[in-house]
Amino acid sequence: MNPPRQRPPAAAPHPRNRHRGRYDFAALTRTAPELQGFMRLGVHGQPTLDFANPEAVRLLNQALLRADYGIVEWDIPPGYLCPPVPGRADYVHALADLLAESHDGVLPAGEKLLGLDIGTGANLIYPLIGQVEYGWRFIGADIDPVALDNAARILAANPNAAQSITLRRQPDPRNIFLGLIQADESIDFTLCNPPFHRSAEEAQDANRKKWQNLRGSADRSLNFGGQHNELYCEDGEAGFLQRMADQSAAHRSQVFWFSTLVSKRENVQPLQERVRALGAADIRDVPMAQGNKRSRFVAWTFLDKKQRRAWRRARWP
Question: Which among 63, 95, 225 is positioned nearest to 147, based on CA atoms?
Answer without folding.
Answer: 225
